[in-house]
Structure formats: C-alpha cells, structure tokens
Amino acid sequence: MDGLGKPFLIHIEDVFCRNQGRLVMLAGRIERGRIRKGDEVEIVGFGGGAIGTVGGIEACRRYVDEASTGMNVGLLLRGVAAGAVERGQVLAAPGSISEYTSFAADIALLSEEHGAAEIRTGERLQFYIRTAVVAGYVTLSQETDVLYPLHRGDVTITLQRPVALEDGQPFAFRHHGRAAGSGIVTLVLA
C-alpha cells in the first residue's frame, strides 16, 4: 500500500507473450501504490478476475525488486494465461477494486467547434476510462431532455463491458467518432 492507505493499481497498456504463451509480460503505468516482486495481483475489468504473481519488474530498462506511483513498468506475471489479459484492464491487489457496467456521472460537453453535439437519452458513446475503450449508453436525468454543447449534466451510463471503476474516476467520451466531452464518476452502481 502507498502512504495514503490505498493498494496499488496499474493500468495495462500492452500485453506480450513469451515461450508459446506460457509467460505473460504486461506494460503499464502505476497509478498508485507500490508493487514488489512476489506480490499477488488480480486482473480486473472485461470480466477478468484471474489471479497471478509478479515474477519480475522491469523499469528504465533494468530489473528492479519494486516500483511505485508514476513509474512505467513491465511486469512478468506467473500463473496467468495469455488470453486472460488485455489492454484496458488493471492490475490491483486482490479484492481492492471491482468492475462495473453502470455508474452515475457528472459530464461536461465540449463546444461545437471542438466536436460536441447534442446528447439525448439512449445515445451510444465511446468511453475512455484509464486505458480502456468501451461503448456504452447514456441516460439523462428525468428533468433533462437534451444536453447541448458547453453544458453539464448528471447522467447514468451503462457500459457494454465491465471495467474497473471507483467513485471520482475521470473519463472522456466520443460521440460519432469525435471528441465530445469528459466526466467524473459520482457513484458506481451494482
């Protein structure tokens, strides 16, 4: 755990397989905490849940025994099948974070010149949460019919695949292939 009492969390950016898929090397950035060689990790997101052990840590082109917040690392995992890991998932201390498909959020739309368009209930958007890219649908609050560019609103979002989420998690979204806005998770929903 880091000094704030939160366990480590690592964004998975790339997955490499060695020796016909028996060894899995992950590349990513440590969002928080400290990870050590020999730590047990859980793969969270996209229906993950596999548990493995850190067999090695590579940082700055050399092997180290531990790495901490802000570092870009390569992690050699033992006990995890190559097909169980993909970009967009996270590595975390077992049981420290969960995956969800629904959440409440406060979103802000960009200007029309920067790509935003009107958003209505039922619109399909692409959400960018950490390194995950996942499609989802938006539901506006009952008192709102439409959100216009440069406006904010409270919404509920339902994703097509589960991702690792926490209250306060920032995200961005695209609408019809164009950057449309950003938001903050206000409440994860079961």
TrEMBL record:
Extent of the signal sequence: none
Keyword Nucleotide-binding belongs to the record: yes
Segments forming domain Translation elongation factor EFTu-like: 27-92
Matching SUPFAM superfamilies: EF-Tu/eEF-1alpha/eIF2-gamma C-terminal domain, Translation proteins
One Pfam family per UniProt: GTP_EFTU_D3
Keyword match DNA-binding: no
Record keywords, A-Z: Elongation factor, GTP-binding, Nucleotide-binding, Protein biosynthesis
Translation elongation factor EFTu/EF1A C-terminal domain boundaries: 96-188
InterPro entries registered for this protein in UniProt: EF-Tu_GTPase, EFTu-like_2, Transl_B-barrel_sf, Transl_elong_EF1A/Init_IF2_C, Transl_elong_EFTu/EF1A_C
Name the record gives this protein: EF-Tu/IF-2/RF-3 family GTPase
Native organism: Streptomyces nogalater
